[in-house]
Amino acid sequence: MLLHFQEYFGLQRLYHLYLFRVERYLIDVCCLALTKLCVTVIFAVSHVTITILNRLLCASFFRLAIFLL
To answer: Taking the domains of the chain in order of start, what are their residue ranges?
Structure first.
């Protein structure tokens, strides 16, 4: 009977270790995906912002050049 308890608790411990590793793997994968998503959003927002600022500055320079001529 004692052997059965030891086997049961040994298997239960292995099962918990396996679940811990799976949870850590899932957390790592989710963190990596979230980081990649954040970096992509930051680059997209910065690209749009730079494009808008570039067009505004070009338009203002052209207006200034036409005004000065």
So the answer is: 41-68
HEC profile for the chain?
CHHHHHHHHHHHHHHHHHHHHHHHHHHHHHHHHHHHHHHHHHHHHHHHHHHHHHHHHHHHHHHHHHHHC
Residue type, 64: L
* Residue appearing with tokens 């980081």: 35
Per-residue pLDDT tens digits of the chain, which is 69 residues long: 555 655 666 777 777 888 888 889 999 999 999 999 999 999 999 999 888 888 888 777 777 777 776
